[in-house]
Amino acid sequence: MRSLLLILGLVVSCFAGSFSFEGEQFLLNDEPFVVMSGEMHYPRVPKEYWRDRCKKARAMGLNTICTYVFWNAHEKVPGEFDFSGQLDVARFVQIAQEEGLWVIVRPGPYVCAEWEFGGLPAWLLKDREMTVRSIDPLFLAAVKRYFMRLADELAPLHISRGGPILMTQIENEYGSFDNDHEYMQQIEQIMLESGFDGMFFTADGPTEKMLDGGTLPHVVSAVNFYNDPEMSFSQFAEFRQNVPRMCGEYWTGWFDHWGFGHHTRDAETVASEIDWMLAKGISVNLYVFHGGTTFGFMNGANVVDGQYRPDVSSYDYDAPLDEAGRPTEKFFALREVFKKYNRDVPSLPKQLSMIQLPELVFNDSASLFGLLDDVVEGTDPLTMEELGQNTGLVLYRYPFGGLGKGVLDLQEVRDFAHIYYDGKLLGSLNRTRDEHQLELDLEHEAPLSILVENMGRVNFGKELVDERKGIITDVLWNDQTLTNWEMYRLPLDSLDKLIFTRKIKHAPYFRRAQFELDQIGDAYLDTKNFTQGHAWVNGHHLGRFWNVGPQEKLFVPGPWLKSGLNEVIILELE
Prior knowledge:
- The chain has 574 residues and is an alpha+beta fold.
- Strand 6, helix 5 (137-154) and strand 7 (165-169) form a beta-alpha-beta unit.
- An eight-stranded parallel barrel has the order 4-5-6-7-8-9-10-11, surrounded by five helices. It has a six-stranded antiparallel sheet with strand order 15-26-16-22-19-20, with no helix packed on it.
- The longest helix is centred in the N-terminal third of the chain and has 18 residues, at 137-154.
- It is 19% helix and 28% strand.
């Protein structure tokens, strides 16, 4: 792979360009250039649709696409990297270039993005001596290994080598986390040693504290904000002058938490504020142009006023392109603005087809506990990370019965625990409501089982430093520690071992529906009648459902469906 990219680099070297700045002006090949960018994340958009979304970015008037790179998606196991298929970030960048777009890359190591653990690999938390986002040598060694491998993919695509990458971000909003300039310098140095070149930049909130903590004096600094660009750039001017002004993230909408309302932003206000910036030659990146879907277990979470709040699977974000990639009112309002500053705006491509799924009948079922495999025994419960698992669920089993009546205390739930005794669900404990105790009657001889689900690691704030999952402390029964546990990993990476029958199972169980399709297109799976769990279509993990809302349907990409027989599998945890 490296040799192929080297040859490619030699071939395109004659087309190499430059991206620099002079005073407040960015220069592309020595000509003034205003970045008109939109954020879009390759894992959140089926790879078959990368080109469609890039075409629509151009049709809205953008000249650049911006993306994070998600470390935990590429290195799920330490030292084992995956840049294939849906994770082929280099191909994503190449498609953007083929469609006439420049590219901004934000490789982390931390990215936030409402993504599991902010893009950091969960296995970093296995070593309790390691501190993430710090000068801890253990953390920096892992970062260097990641950047060295990532540079194999992306370094040949810098503008200096004929590629479309104009800028590369150092870390992400570090001023909202800490103010360790030595750490930021170390990350910059690792990026340089790995082979990244060209223009580096940082991005932080516009306050003096955030800018001071997250920037480097010799690096371009962008500011992120929700509204009132005049105030934000006034604050920035007090911090730094005679440098390019750029909004690294202009939030076109906002993300949603389970159990709270759906967020929207007025299209007219968004268009007006973008117009204000472009009229003054200020570069801008829309966060987001198209959000897509956080498929699988990869949603993040926040801690707000001390309360844990996991994010929904939809990353619609009330963006100019909706979750299914369809232009919205906001798209057309912004298109009128960008056309004032970009003369090269093509027409919209043909819209992709949408179909209605037939009514689903779930005749078959299979027990989740049928997937239990190798047992891990321990005196005390082990965390998910200590069990070598990143996401999914863990079953903790206390094999000794006859405890009598008492209070079960998990002390802190990470994040949703279902308590079973003799095969029956006795109750649930939910971290979002700070629940950790249950009064139980365990008189007869039967094992006590605790099924714990990781609902998404915190992706923002100091809390992420210690965001381990599963059972993270001693389990108490009437204030006495229970010891000698059996533990079973349930990552649910594959459902191939499930054995379905027509016999109805008790929760937690999988249910399966099969259906025929004559026509293929994008669709939505209605989940309003489900309780809490996950859904798969033809083996693709669509994400979570939960009847607390606000999300009531899951996006089903057309490329994941097929003519003829299809299947939907849902996991009901309640």
